[in-house]
Structure formats: structure tokens, C-alpha cells
């Protein structure tokens, strides 16, 4: 899926069609059940998708015109819809597909932003990277056996060391 979206200055509620397209990524690609998102609303601004828990006070957003709202769920890229690190950490716990399980050293390297050279039984593209069943973030897997860390630089600096087992 490629983005045809241009820059947008206003945050808006995703239409039912847009919501379905976005949530299909999580269900079809990662096996995250749709009901995981039933308590949330999705908003769009530019290339970014934001998610926030549904609330009776959400109507205030239209009065305040915020720049962002809630947590970034995903971003439209030239490779398709890329889940955010935080979205993977929150919703990846119930994922069943396209998960690269790493050992301690691999997880530490991934969190430092390094590319992991290893073949996984995964579909090429964006994948969930996990250590000891804990979702760490988003990676980009290629059929050549390269797993590129997409952990943002600001998160890499704050990444805790994984203790020895």
C-alpha cells in the first residue's frame, strides 16, 4: 500500500473505510484480533495515524485543534503502513504472525539499531521483533535474511540493557 496523502495540517477522525484498511494491517499481517482496537478511535494527520481510547470527552479535540492525539499507531511510507514502535509494544503482545524472536544478544543489538543477519520464517516487510515474548519494536525483514532495526534513534538512546538470563 502506498500513500497518496499529502501534507495535512488538521487532525481528523478516520473514516470507517480508512479505519478498516489500517486495522487490516494489524489483523492480516500480524494476527492481532480486531477486537483489540474496539475501545479506540483512530485519527489521521498527514502520513500519521494516531490512536486514542474512546472517551465521552473526545469531542473536545475538535474544539482545541490539537497537533497530535494519543499515541502514534502507524505511518504511511513508500513501503506501506509502518507500525510505530509503541504500537508494537502495546498491541504486539497478542500478535501471532510475522514475529522475529531474538535471543538476548540479538535483542540488544536490535535495540541499538543494528541490522540482524539471520533467516526467519517471515513474510518480507514490516515485522514485530520480540525477545522472550516481549515485543520490542518494528523491523524491516528482507528475503535475503536481513532484519533492519527501525527503532527510532531517540528510543535507542534510552533503551535499557537486557539483563543476562
Describe what this molecule looks like in 3D.
This protein has 165 residues and is of the alpha+beta class. It folds into 2 domains: 80 residues; 61 residues, Archaeosine Trna-guanine Transglycosylase, Chain: A, domain 4, CATH 2.30.130.60. The chain contains 5 helices and 10 strands. A 5-stranded antiparallel β-sheet has the order 1-2-3-4-5. A hairpin with a 3-residue loop joins strand 9 and strand 10.
How would you summarize what this structure contains?
The chain has helices spanning 16-30, 60-64, 85-91, 104-111, 153-158, and strands at 12-13, 40-45, 48-53, 71-77, 80-83, 99-102, 116-117, 125-131, 134-142, 146-149.
Main beta sheet strand tally, sense and closure = 5 strands, antiparallel
Strand order within the widest beta sheet: 1-2-3-4-5
How far from one another are the termini? 40 Å
Helical percentage: 10-25%
Domain count, please report it.
2
Chain-averaged pLDDT? 88
Secondary structure: number of strands: 10
* Poorly predicted runs: 1-7
Structural class of the helices, strands and pairings?
alpha+beta
Beta percentage is 25-35%
Tell me the overall shape: globular
DSSP helix count?
Answer: 5
Element pattern in H and E: EHEEHEEHEHEEEEH
Rg, alpha carbons: 16 Å
Amino acid at each position: 500500500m502506498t500513500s497518496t496523502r499529502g501534507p495535512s495540517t488538521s487532525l481528523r477522525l478516520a473514516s470507517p473505510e480508512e479505519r478498516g484498511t489500517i486495522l487490516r494491517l494489524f489483523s492480516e499481517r500480524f494476527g492481532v484480533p480486531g477486537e483489540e482496537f474496539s475501545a479506540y478511535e483512530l485519527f489521521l494527520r498527514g502520513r500519521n495515524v494516531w490512536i486514542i481510547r474512546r472517551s465521552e470527552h473526545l469531542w473536545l479535540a475538535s474544539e482545541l485543534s490539537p497537533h497530535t492525539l494519543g499515541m502514534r499507531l502507524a505511518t504511511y511510507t513508500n513501503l506501506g503502513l509502518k507500525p510505530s514502535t509503541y504500537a508494537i509494544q502495546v498491541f504486539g503482545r497478542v500478535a501471532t504472525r510475522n514475529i522475529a524472536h531474538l535471543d538476548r544478544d540479538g535483542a540488544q543489538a536490535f535495540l541499538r539499531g543494528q541490522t540482524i543477519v539471520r533467516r526467519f520464517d517471515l513474510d518480507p516487510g514490516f515485522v514485530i521483533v520480540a525477545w522472550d515474548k516481549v515485543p520490542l519494536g518494528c523491523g524491516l525483514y528482507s528475503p535475503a535474511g536481513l532484519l533492519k532495526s527501525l527503532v527510532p534513534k531517540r528510543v535507542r538512546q534510552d533503551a535499557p540493557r537486557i539483563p543476562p538470563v
